[in-house]
Write a structure and sequence with these properties.
By secondary structure, the chain is mainly alpha-helical. The protein has 10 helices and no strands. The chain binds 1-(2,5-dioxo-2,5-dihydro-1H-imidazol-4-yl)urea.
Length: about 170
């Protein structure tokens, strides 16, 4: 996909295609639309990163709260977004046994109790054992550090989703 194709998209089509590069946060795509024309994919990513970084802590936590739990209720009930379903599946979270599901559920609950937002990690870059280990480790963090770490994971997820869109045929998404 050429960047000129992206720059030629209508606002509605742009948000339709890029609206979920940050999970359930189409506002971010709507906001960066103001920066068209984009130089390249990296330019889009930079604008998204700058937008996220410019948010107050409450906005960053809002972004985190838009993420589904890993191996949580949405996965069990089939209500994940298409992107999240693929990511959780690649990390091996769709084939957990009942003991692993319970462990994940307990750690996710402790984490949310402590921080007030869900644990977020780039599932595509981690396998289930790493996810469980990092969930357990990051539970020990201070809130401010943890918020920043989680937001860095959101940026990684976003970057991979952007690349996926560019690799795929944009026409099939319209
Ligand atoms: C997710 C998700 O939906 N995809 C991903 O990579 N991580 N969720 C999460 N809570 O970390």
């Amino acid at each position: 996909m050429d960047i000129s194709v992206v720059n030629a998209l209508t606002y509605d089509d742009f948000v339709k295609i890029f609206g979920n590069v940050v999970e359930k946060c189409p506002l971010i795509s709507a906001a960066i639309w103001s920066h068209r024309p984009f130089k390249d994919l990296a330019d889009i990513e930079t604008h998204i990163t700058e937008f996220i970084d410019s948010l107050p802590d409450s906005g960053k936590e809002g972004i985190l709260r838009c993420h589904p739990d890993l191996a949580g209720r949405d996965l069990q009930s089939g209500t994940l977004t298409h992107e999240s379903q693929e990511e959780q599946s690649q990390a091996g979270l769709t084939t957990l046994d009942s003991a692993e599901i319970l462990r994940m559920y307990r750690l996710n609950s402790q984490y949310k109790e402590r921080f007030g937002f869900p644990f977020v990690i780039c599932a595509r870059m981690n396998k289930k054992a790493d996810i469980l280990r990092q969930l357990s480790d990051r539970l020990q963090n201070e809130r401010a550090l943890e918020r920043e770490q989680a937001i860095e994971e959101v940026k990684k997820i976003c970057s991979l989703r952007l690349h996926n869109i560019v690799l795929s045929d944009i026409q099939t998404k319209l």
